[in-house]
Automatic annotation (TrEMBL):
ATP-dependent carboxylate-amine ligase which exhibits weak glutamate--cysteine ligase activity. It catalyses: L-cysteine + L-glutamate + ATP = gamma-L-glutamyl-L-cysteine + ADP + phosphate + H(+). InterPro entries: GCL_type2/YbdK_subfam, GCS2, Gln_synth/guanido_kin_cat_dom, YbdK. This is Putative glutamate--cysteine ligase 2. Pfam families: GCS2 (PF04107). Its EC number is 6.3.2.2.
Length: 374
């Protein structure tokens, strides 16, 4: 995402989505990413890019002020990628993990960081084929971004539950709503960030972890919430890529409202509750297992309540900002859809039970990614 511009007090938001490329006949993920990215870039330029595995491609938006602007930009990028994939003989598929894939370790993209990751993490990367949704909110002050993150980090489990969209892996139902989160959670340098009272403390902790070689480099942390190392944003990385653009937009504006609410608390001198990292990792695991339909960690009380109630509490917490920016209707509609049809994992399982099996799940995901209703 390009650097955010000054928008007169309204923080910009931007998203990055990772997608799989699947063969329309076998429905397995195929290494078509470089070709698809190159073709789509002729239409949308640097808003598309290669990804970690060659069976993936990334789409991203420029900084946007409103939900409507974000919807238009993301729709334009998805359409370019859908068209490019079709011309290349593949299909674009928005799922946190591949429903079906060819065996063996994934073919990695040609990037020095990817090669360094293979050397450092070795066989841990043999099944590291996961697709995420990242949301950026403009915060130009990195010190403010770190301390704001202390307020935001307890809500990471809620965002995992809202976005759960990866129940299948290699043709089997894992029993989890977000298997992507489980794969990601095995790594020592991923998951909720540590509480840090200052930018200096944040950088010191990253440096110590990098010295253990659990992190590639201290300036490039991959925690689920971080001040982006290149952009003036606070970035959330915990979510599965979502099937529907409307869901993505609603989650993005909800996250912006949370960041703005938290930043104001920091400015008033509130340091945030120092939840232990192990508590948050456990809560993230529960969210990954059960998704929208389970019990969730309430960041305000520490109690476990139905995720729908936790989500309602989050909306109450940030409602003034949602109303100020005109985003309340987007979030309300998201929760109505979740109540009616469940999360992405529930939809995938329903498609699988319809009799078409894993191949049918892929077909429905491809249609949803391209914007078909249902």
């Amino acid at each position: 995402m390009p650097p955010a511009a000054d928008t007169g007090g309204l923080p910009t938001i931007g998203v990055e989505e990772e997608y799989f490329l699947v063969d329309p006949h076998t429905r397995a993920a195929v290494p078509a990413g470089p070709g698809v990215a190159a073709r789509a870039s002729r239409v949308v330029g640097d808003l598309v890019a290669n990804e970690f595995a060659e069976c993936q491609v990334e789409g991203r938006t420029p900084p946007c002020r409103t939900a409507g602007e974000l919807r238009g930009e993301l729709g334009r990028v998805r359409r370019a990628l859908v068209t490019a994939a079709g011309a290349d003989g593949s299909c674009l598929c928005a799922s946190g993990t591949p429903v079906l894939r060819q065996g063996g370790p994934p073919r990695l993209g040609d990037h020095p960081r990817y090669r360094a990751g293979r050397e450092q993490y070795r066989s841990m990367l043999d099944d590291f084929v996961i697709s995420a949704l990242h949301v950026h909110v403009h915060l130009p002050d990195r010190e403010l971004a770190v301390v704001t993150g202390n307020h935001v980090r307890p809500w990471l489990p809620a965002f995992i539950a809202l976005s759960a969209n990866s129940p299948f892996f290699e043709g089997r139902d894992t029993g989890y709503a977000s298997w992507r989160s489980v794969i990601r959670g095995r790594f020592p340098c991923l998951g909720p960030p540590p509480y840090a009272g200052s930018l200096e403390e944040h950088e010191r902790l990253a440096g110590v972890i990098a010295d253990t070689e659990a992190m590639l480099e201290p300036g490039m942390s991959f925690w689920d919430l971080r001040p982006n190392p290149r952009l003036p944003t606070l970035e959330i990385r915990s979510m599965d890529v979502l099937q529907d653009i409307d869901d993505t937009i609603a989650v993005a504006v909800l996250f912006r409202a949370l960041v703005v609410t938290a930043a104001e608390k920091v400015r008033r001198g509130d340091p945030g509750t120092r939840w232990d990292g192990e508590v948050l990792r456990a809560a993230c695991w529960r969210a990954a297992r059960d998704g929208w339909n389970g019990g969730g960690f309430d960041a305000l009380t520490g109690q476990v309540r139905p995720v729908s109630e936790v989500a309602e509490g989050l909306v109450r917490y940030v409602r003034p900002v949602l109303e100020q920016y005109g985003d309340l209707a987007e979030v309300t509609a998201l929760f109505q859809r979740l109540a009616a049809r469940g999360d992405g994992a529930s939809r995938q399982r329903a498609w699988g039970r319809s009799g078409a099996g894993p191949a049918g799940v892929v077909d429905r995901l491809v249609l949803a990614t391209a914007g078909a209703p249902g």
